Amino acid sequence: MSSTRPADGTASSDPEPADPSTSDRSSVGWDVAVDGGDRWGSVPGGVATAIGAVTGLVVVLVGVVGALSVESTLLGDRALLAMRTRDVFSSSIPVVGAYSRFGWSHPGPWSFYLQAVPFRVLGGDGTALAVAAATVNAAVLGLGGWVAARRSAAVTAVFTVATAVLIVNGTLVIHEAWNPAMAIAPMLVAVVAAAVAWTGDGAALAVVIGCGALAAQTHVGVALPVAVAMVIAGVGWFRHRPDDGGVPVAALVVAGLAVAPIVFDTVTDWPGNAWRLVESAFSDDLERVGAVDALRLILRSTSPEFVVDPGYEQFFGFVVSGQSVGWLPGAVLVLVALVARYGASASLRRLALIQLAVSLGAFVGIAGIRGPLHAYLLGVLPVLATIGWSIVAAEVAARLVSAPPAWMLAVSLLSLPLVAWVAADGPWVDQAADGDVDAVESVVTDIERWADGRSNPTVALEVSAPDDFQGVDLFGGLVEALDRRGVGVVPGTGHEFLLPDRAGDAVSATVTVVSLAPTDPTGDVDGALVVYDPLTAAERARLTELLGQLVTVLEQNDLAVLVPAVTNGDVDAVPVDRFEDPDTVRRQLAELRALLERGPRLVVTVS
């Protein structure tokens, strides 16, 4: 049995046979997945459009609720992303993505371009960036709902339920502008839309290319999995395209726009950022995660235990080697494979095969990660696992309920208002402590006062801190806040990789900001522009006393290795349960943490 396809390159809206027995269950393959029966049938065009609109509307409402809780002053990576978004309307339009600590940038600037207008219109601060991120994510997910509904009620149910689950469990934070988080929504849409594009749907092919490019440009860590989805979509579309149809114009335009900034960067800055990415990928200067640990991570992520206890064992913020695989490791992969072989719905069989192929791409990508493994680099795994569980749930529902598409779609869409209710309970953006924001705002005010009256002041900003992560947080917050106030900033020594396009510019002065460790004496600083301390003298003395007591306890319990980190203010890694009196240590840590969260001591000098 074959489906008819109009000349415009889209799949026919005629429903697939309602009786699953009409499909050829004796063989499995891509052609069977296309031509076999679909228990719930397809979706009328008007309903598909409505599903996309409702999905986008609900998601943007969820995002705005969360965005209103975000500080107007940003720190670290988010602050630097805000600067690059602001640069879209400057003479220094970005042609590469966010910076990386490895000396290259992520592949492309699409996320900056898409967020630029709402970011500028809403004031260009932290809250505006959060709303801009919510707007882009809502548009992407609305597009995903529309594309899924173009072909299959079952795929639509998988998409809407997976979207809701990822938002509720915190994997997909709608208003989070941090680039690893901004890659989640387009990656989800690219994987699901690939199943629609395989049927010869030209519009879905354009969506896969666009969302795949957006995800890969935003964070290179998802490039390989989405590349698998894009290749599958392209091959499937080619095999099942209309007999008299060429490549859809929309797909060609989107592909051209995706590669244009990369080509421009390569030509104008030869050999370009793309070549630096390739060099880094094949460099052996750092140890890789490896196949064994990558397999253990995937098996854990696809186990039922991960559903109830998500996350990975970490030490000082890094995912440790030899992860526990949980109970029934890889269970969802096995179940998805069974759906791919015996599924009652052709569209679910197709999507199941794609999920397995993309999971293989994720395995290869994770195995090749170089250097210390941060948990955010594994963001692709919860997405693929959630898609897998949603496929299994839809398969069970298809076997138990012979319902019309409208009924099932209504049920699946009911999950989205639930998301809005849950999201309204509180912000989920992992913002730094308010004390850090207060410190940045106070210091920036003093620097701005110093720069007032000077003609086009441009300063070199140097920041030193006991901890590298705190240093990046402070540098990002200070440089973005100064840039927003019209003070030009050039990265100082050691921070050139954060703003490579500005390094080397002429400056009129150097501003040095030193963040003191909690145990360092402040003392008198000759010529300091400002010495900022959020604590009173009595509070500072109490903090010093608590740190001394904690260091003594660590040394007495053979944990002296933690002393350097603790004296620099990192108290979260202290293993409380290893002490004889854990309750006392826990109370001391709570008091100490409250004092540390008031913010750092900063000494600012100008030369």
Put the structure in a nutshell.
The chain has 607 residues and is mostly helical. Helices cover 56% and strands 6% of the residues.
Describe the structure.
The protein has helices spanning 30-35, 45-67, 76-86, 110-121, 126-151, 153-168, 179-182, 184-197, 202-218, 223-240, 249-268, 272-281, 291-301, 304-308, 331-342, 346-367, 380-400, 405-413, 415-423, 434-451, 468-484, 537-556, 563-567, 582-596; strands spanning 314-315, 318-319, 458-464, 488-491, 509-516, 528-532, 601-606. It has 607 residues and is mainly alpha-helical. The strands form two sheets. A five-stranded mixed β-sheet has the order 4-3-5-7-6, covered by helices on one side.
Give the arrangement of secondary structure elements.
Elements: H1 30-35, H2 45-67, H3 76-86, H4 110-121, H5 126-151, H6 153-168, H7 179-182, H8 184-197, H9 202-218, H10 223-240, H11 249-268, H12 272-281, H13 291-301, H14 304-308, E1 314-315, E2 318-319, H15 331-342, H16 346-367, H17 380-400, H18 405-413, H19 415-423, H20 434-451, E3 458-464, H21 468-484, E4 488-491, E5 509-516, E6 528-532, H22 537-556, H23 563-567, H24 582-596, E7 601-606
Parallel strand pairs: 3-4, 3-5
Antiparallel strand pairs: 1-2, 5-7, 6-7
Helix pairs in contact: 2-5, 2-19, 3-4, 3-21, 4-5, 5-6, 5-8, 5-9, 6-17, 6-18, 6-19, 8-9, 8-10, 8-16, 9-10, 9-11, 10-16, 11-12, 13-16, 15-16, 15-17, 16-17, 20-21, 22-24
